[in-house]
Amino acid sequence: MDQENSGQTASEPLLAAWIKWTMDFWDTMAQMGPGLAGAGRSGGQASRETALPADPWPAALNLWQAFFSLLTEPGTVAAVFQGIQAPPKIILKMAQAGWGGYFQLHQQWLKGWQGDGSPSGEHGYEHLDQDIFKACHEIFEHDFRRLLNLPHLCLTSLPQERVNRATEKFNRFQAAMAEFIDLLYLPVKKSLRAMGTEWVNGGGGPLPEDFKGYYKRWLKILEGHYMTIFQSAEYIRTLTHTLHALEDFTRAKQELLSEAMAALGLPTRREMDDLYREIYLLKKSVKRMARKLDPTEPSQEEG
Amino acid sequence: MDRPKIPVDLILAKLAADAEAAKHRLERARDIFLGPLATDIGTTPYELVYQEDRVRLKYYRPDAARLKTPLLLVHSLFNRETLLDLQPGRSVVHNLLKEGVEVYLIEWGSPSRRDQFLTLDDHLNGYLDDIVEFIRRRHGVPKVNLLGVCLGGTFAVIYAALHPEKIRNLIATAAPAHFNTPKGLLHIWLQKIDVDRLVNTFGNLPGSLVNAAFLLLNPPRLLLDKYLGFLEHMDDKNFVENFIRMEKWIFDSPDVPGETVRQVIKDLYQENLLVQGKLSLGGRRVDLRRVTMPLLNIYGQFDHLVPPEACEVLAGKVGSRDTENVCLDTGHVGIYVSSRFQKETIPKIAAWLLAREG
Is CATH 3.40.50.720 correct for B47-355? Predict the structure, then answer.
């Protein structure tokens, strides 16, 4: 008990310090966003990429700020640690792993955002910044996956393993899907940025006088970005990876369901497939024989 | 340097006017949506004349037949044949009937797991050949006319190469023959796909995956602009009905038998065996030089699914001396539903067939 208490007192200041530091960071970022946007519109020196009228930064930063403000409340921190004491050690271990992973993820985000916010450049899609997804992948590989692959014993070990495998494959599929959707969203971000640049620069021609004109222009840019990304090696890699993750999850799910169906005395998918194959081959043989017996049927041997 | 100013006041004024118009549109649309809507597809009357397993054959009788040889339409396995009879007034089938053509249309049906082992050979030398035999016997004719749609067009070409003695005239529409082209996204993506893994996992290729793949070909148009267009015209009953008909067709892709998918992707998309004369079916080589009957090859200039580069080489590869390439200034589906195709190309097809009745 004393040990647990000492662990709690050691973690709390560290957590509080980290939250305060994060708060300061977001505070700075929130102040920078509108300032830069304003500077961009007034023709100042600030980067035009942050001056996009449709930039979601201010809203997102405010949300984060509000979230972290809540975390700094002493009551909240105490409640978090109070809650952690209750579950068994394995849950505590998982929570610690998750917390460590989140911290690692946060570091990755910070590294990404300390750059220019446009890791792949304006038009290139070959070297996308996948740090966030790499971090997620590492968290899963280093922490959660090991827990899901713990050896099981005795009578129920096989079904348990199947459940865990299906869970693991489901998580991998979700991660792959998130990466794929993020990639699909990239042209939207880029086209909005390009439109913002056009607004600021004037676009080199007369500006449309109605919203539809801007929409059509944006749609054209968006289509161009999609056509570029769809032909990139990165997109094909991500698409293939997502498809493989879906296939792995589907197979794991089928194995799990087969186990349940066998337990219920129902024919499994594999048994039905074997039966279907036999029927298919039998029908083919019968048809071949019927054709041989039909005098009006021409020979299939020529050619 | 002076920059053009964004006419914010003008934009806002027009937005306000648009919002007012949208309000009235919504009121009119409410009546349309709550009232009766005619959104059925495939409404041209037909007779079911043949069935083998899941595959059925529809027969459409014209008021007055001008051609002795019936025309068999072969659709792709990847979506429904109802595209050819989508809406009254813009139905390929209906307009062919008006031209005096007797039409047969293959309905490939909805494959289940029991169909997963069916190969390309089973579809072409099995179902399609049985249907051609049925029509020949029913009409007492030695040959039939064949019109293929999309991959159904490729199937028709392969069949004509294997059974030239049964085909009088061949019409390929948006039918890929040369698959190794970097112009179509589908051609690019399918080069890299591990089809063995896909088929071994799913058995049949799920229709939902096919739908998703088609949407990914152009998300801005297919997932956004199309529906904004719908919102703009939702007070037009005719537009709403046709839009819903098209939606019904698009999202009704059936599952595709796994072994056929494996063969189509490996042998056609990845190895491009057809134009090289290396494709084998049921132990027989598919030699395009055996396509000696007249060939009409129709494709769309702006087809993002089957680009012109995939279609136009066919005429040069077949053995026939009577070939014609027709490139329409439309996209993939536009070939079958555009008013120009309905008004100009279908009469041209009928006249082309009539001139080659023999």
Answer: no
